[in-house]
Task: inverse folding
């Protein structure tokens, strides 16, 4: 692809410097900048979508006078009139970024803005993420349809995020992405996602993100430059708003071009010409989409000029933690990680099966799928027209549906079948066996338990072993800071509705329960029917909060706030258990508790 470079700079004396470089010829011109600076209000009106045709004409004329000034003009016109299409690399001073220079160059020019530092033109993965912020049914349907052919043609793993929140987007991008398409309302330098306004530097864009399509108007002119500086190779953004019909034209033509293997610069150029034909060049709206690219490096062209998809280097970082839907991070303590939902585990497993870079991980995940015991009989096939990502989600949804069960009481008969396990636990911790059996009996009957004796970590270890070996459940210490928030998150994980839709954006489709997946400190997976809460209050206010949570468990529900901050009634599963771990019981302790002091001596009736 032939390229020429046009550099626009604002000098200290308010004069504009225009520099044309074709590789074979170099020309410069100086222009009085006052005429351009006087149009700053016009440029702002264009950016906000409030520029009438007369203003667009005046703004276009002023900018054309700058870019075609002096000796630069004839050379630039000759380059743009060549029979072989030429891409114009536009290097613009940050103080001039607010002007829509694409208007001054005309719709016939394939224009790309260059900024930031060079980066490799290669990508690290074939994953694509689609995120659509804001309420409303059918959001993103046009993009999902337009990218379906792209996914089939280039075997892309395209994932539409079910909830476009800041944590969800950052999690999706932490291992890199070939393409990120993000649509949301924006203001200044923030993007309005489902969980509120998120600064653009907190979207998760990094050097492992190759192409970002940011469909959000009303951003400041510096916002795209900041995103580009975070490492994205190519960014397509808006410098003026487009209505739904115009958006449909651009999205269809742009992704059609990428499907055909065109570089991003050429695909945007095709879409601009389609907009000019549909809307008329005099409206100037064809210039709304802007391409920002990293500059060329010593051994590779600018990423926007590379045919799509670019070469894949498989250098993306490994995930730093298991994916979860309800929390950014949950600390691993005493060998048990914050539980992962069955829905996410199944989805991640099906994706791991197509990634041959970690066969041992895939094998371990398949063993867990077998242990889950889903009795699934498929009577239909995955949609033939779907992308790999859509087929993966289709199968994951059906696997999850086969594992859903109704909420039910705890049914394990400890005394009849699990006394040997209780004796082994007692021997491992040096406590009397009848104390462990008493603990098991209290857990089975749903009686609240207060544990004393041993030390803090060993009490937690003993409860974890009792819950896991005898009942098939996990046990997790709940941090004292924000105890009720952590407790609510743990309870919510047990419900399939909360797993799939924590923001309650869609009607409930899968009521009931599904298993949870834990991961031990050595990386091994373990399946739990549920995960119980261990409360470890250290002072009087924390003890009062813990007793409130115990009371709520006995009632079977708790009033709390969801992730949308609206009040909600959170049901507590019938087999959910809460255990208190304290060094000493205060005077007047409720008699409803089973008080168990873990020691080598037998329990006193």
Result:
């Amino acid at each position: 692809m032939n390229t020429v470079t046009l550099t626009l700079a604002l000098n200290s004396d308010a004069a504009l410097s225009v520099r044309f470089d074709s590789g074979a010829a170099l020309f410069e011109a100086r222009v009085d900048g006052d005429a351009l600076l006087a149009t700053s209000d016009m440029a702002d009106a264009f950016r906000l979508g409030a520029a009438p045709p007369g203003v667009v004409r005046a703004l276009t004329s002023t900018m054309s006078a700058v870019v075609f000034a002096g000796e630069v003009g004839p050379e630039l016109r000759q380059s743009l009139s060549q029979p072989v299409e030429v891409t114009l690399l536009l290097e613009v001073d940050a103080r001039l970024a607010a002007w829509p220079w694409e208007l001054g160059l005309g719709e016939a020019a394939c224009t790309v803005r260059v900024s930031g530092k060079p980066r490799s033109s290669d990508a690290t993965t074939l994953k694509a993420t689609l995120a659509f912020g804001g309420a409303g049914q059918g959001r993103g349907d046009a993009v999902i349809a337009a990218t379906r052919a792209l996914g089939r043609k280039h075997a892309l793993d395209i994932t539409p995020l079910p909830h476009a929140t800041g944590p969800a987007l950052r999690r999706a991008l932490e291992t890199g992405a070939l393409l990120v398409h993000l649509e949301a309302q924006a203001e200044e330098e923030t993007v309005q996602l489902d969980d509120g306004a998120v600064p653009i530097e907190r979207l998760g864009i990094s050097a492992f993100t190759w192409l970002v399509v940011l469909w959000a108007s009303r951003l400041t002119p510096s916002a795209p430059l900041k995103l580009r500086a975070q490492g994205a190779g190519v960014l397509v953004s808006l410098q003026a708003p487009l209505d739904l019909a115009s958006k449909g034209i651009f999205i269809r033509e742009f992704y059609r071009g990428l499907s055909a293997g065109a570089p991003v610069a050429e695909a945007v150029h095709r879409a601009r010409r389609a907009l000019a034909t549909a809307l008329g060049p005099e409206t100037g709206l064809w210039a709304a989409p802007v391409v920002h690219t990293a500059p060329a490096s010593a051994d590779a062209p600018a990423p926007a000029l590379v045919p799509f998809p670019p070469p894949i280097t498989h250098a993306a970082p490994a995930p730093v933690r298991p994916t979860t839907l309800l929390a950014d991070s949950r600390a691993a303590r005493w060998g048990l990680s914050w539980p992962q939902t069955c829905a996410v585990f199944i989805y991640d497993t099906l994706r791991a099966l197509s990634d041959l870079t970690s066969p041992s991980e895939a094998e371990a995940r398949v063993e867990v799928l077998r242990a889950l015991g889903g009795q699934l009989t498929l009577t239909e096939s995955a949609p033939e027209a779907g992308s790999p990502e859509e087929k993966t989600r289709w199968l994951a949804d059906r696997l999850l549906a086969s594992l859903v069960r109704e909420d039910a009481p705890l049914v394990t008969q400890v005394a009849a079948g699990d006394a040997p396990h209780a004796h082994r636990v007692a021997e491992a911790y040096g406590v009397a066996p009848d104390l462990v059996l008493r603990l098991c009996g209290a857990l089975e009957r749903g009686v609240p338990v207060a544990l004393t004796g041993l030390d803090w970590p060993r009490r937690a270890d003993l409860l974890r072993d009792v819950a896991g070996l005898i009942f098939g459940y996990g046990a997790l210490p709940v941090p004292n800071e924000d105890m009720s928030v952590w407790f609510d998150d743990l309870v919510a994980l047990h419900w399939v509705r909360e797993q799939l839709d924590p923001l309650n954006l869609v009607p409930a489709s899968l009521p009931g329960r599904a298993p949870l997946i834990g991961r031990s400190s050595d990386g091994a997976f373990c399946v739990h029917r549920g995960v119980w809460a261990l409360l470890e209050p250290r002072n009087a206010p924390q003890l009062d909060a813990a007793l409130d949570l115990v009371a709520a468990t006995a009632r079977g529900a708790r009033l709390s706030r969801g992730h949308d901050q609206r009040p909600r009634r959170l049901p507590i599963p019938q087999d959910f258990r809460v255990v208190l771990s304290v060094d000493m019981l205060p005077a007047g302790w409720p008699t409803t508790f089973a008080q168990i002091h873990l020691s080598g001596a037998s329990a006193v009736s």
Remarks:
- The chain has 20 helices and 24 strands.
- The CA atoms of residues 53 and 283 lie 6 Å apart.
- The mean pLDDT is 82.
- The longest strand covers residues 2-10.
